[in-house]
Specification:
This protein has 2 helices and 19 strands. The protein has 307 residues and is mostly beta strands. Strands 6, 8, 9, 10, 12, 14 and 15 form a 7-stranded mixed β-sheet that branches. Strands 2-1-3-4 form a 4-stranded antiparallel β-sheet, with no helix packed on it. The protein has a 4-stranded mixed β-sheet with strand order 11-17-16-13, with no helix packed on it. It is rod-shaped. Among the domains are: 52-90 and 115-148, Immunoglobulin-like (Sandwich), CATH 2.60.40; 160-236, Immunoglobulin-like, CATH 2.60.40.10. It has helices at residues 238-268, 277-282; strands at 2-7, 10-12, 26-34, 37-45, 49-52, 61-65, 77-79, 83-88, 126-134, 137-159, 163-165, 170-179, 183-187, 194-196, 202-205, 214-222, 225-236, 286-294, 297-304. One of its GO terms (biological process) is cell adhesion. Residues 1-20, 89-120 are annotated as: Disordered. The chain crosses the membrane at residues 239-265. Keywords: Membrane, Transmembrane, Transmembrane helix.
Length: 307
């Protein structure tokens, strides 16, 4: 008799053992021949092997978007088809609900039943380890997950205060959380004395005037959305009113002093004339007595007060 066979249409030659590879799997046709005839039989050979996880089926970096289903599928090869689980490093939960399983094998696919998954939050960011397991062993691969989200938590601060004194300066700062980092735009009261920072995160006003009062609105944007916040700035002019009042008070005071002075001068001015000195000395109206000489002898000037 003469034996022989084919594999995928190619003749098989040689006998003896050799190292099996995945390429050896498939359908074999065995043929036995002698002078009395031929016997043919086909055999399917399955080659089993341990799992492996590659970059193509399981990239080491992933981007998740906040609010979308939290799914971390990682494809692995192996026969029998491996079961793949992924868990965040340091997380004691097993299995993690945020990372449903996924498998892909060369000889037939197998998919675990889908798990109920929550939506992505910022807390899901981190490093996960995916493990593929079958009867012949396990393979591991780490995956780093970053979570992106639209701008949130827009805050505005006016330094030193939102109540600004006319002529002084102030700065309005804007900040927001977001991945990627947000960019900033402003809606501002129309005024010439405004200056935006290089990164647009703040606006500075010098020598504030009434044109600088009003609503300052900052909008933070990235590819996932936009969010705005506002603050009201007031320019206080009360110090002008105080100065005007003080000026008016000063004018009134000066006028009052002038009137009082005139009245004093009028009522205390010396009245000139000739008086009997003895009578003047005894008078309650005598305020002062001045003596001087002239060609007619001694002359006395007497200052009297009003009765």
């Amino acid at each position: 008799s003469r034996d022989g066979g084919t594999h995928h249409g190619q003749p098989i030659t040689g006998r003896g053992g050799r190292v099996v590879t995945r390429a050896d799997g498939g359908r074999y046709v065995c043929r036995a021949t002698n002078r009395h005839g031929v016997a043919v039989r086909s055999v399917v050979v399955t080659v089993e092997y341990r799992p492996s996880i590659g970059e193509r089926g399981c990239p080491e970096r992933r981007l998740w978007l906040e609010g979308t289903p939290a799914e971390l599928g990682c494809a692995a090869t192996g026969n029998p088809p491996p079961r793949v689980t992924c868990a965040r490093l340091g997380d004691s939960r097993d299995p993690p609900t945020a990372t449903p399983n996924a498998t892909r094998a060369e000889l037939g696919d197998s998919q675990d039943p889908p798990q109920a998954t929550p939506n992505v939050t910022r807390a899901h960011a981190g490093t996960y380890q995916c493990r593929a397991t079958n009867a012949h062993g396990s393979a591991f691969r780490n995956v780093t997950v970053a979570v992106e989200y639209g701008p949130a938590g827009v805050t505005l601060r006016v330094l030193p205060s939102a109540n600004v004194t006319r002529g002084s300066g102030f700065t309005v700062d804007c900040g927001a959380e977001g991945v990627p980092a947000p960019t900033y735009t402003w809606a501002l009261p129309p005024a010439p004395n405004l200056r935006l920072a290089a990164d647009n995160r703040s606006v500075t006003v010098t020598r504030a005037t009434t044109a600088n009062r009003g609503v300052y609105t900052c909008t933070a944007s990235n590819r996932h959305g936009r969010r705005a916040g506002s603050v009201v700035v007031r320019v206080d002019e009360s110090w002008l009113v105080v100065l005007v009042a003080l000026g008016a008070l000063g004018a009134v005071t000066a006028l009052g002093l002038a009137v009082a002075g005139g009245y004093y001068l009028k009522t205390t001015a010396c009245k000139k004339g000739e008086y009997n000195v003895r009578d003047a000395e005894g008078s309650s109206e005598a305020a002062c007595l001045h003596r001087h000489r002239d060609n007619h002898g001694d002359v006395f000037g007497i200052q009297l007060t009003q009765p």
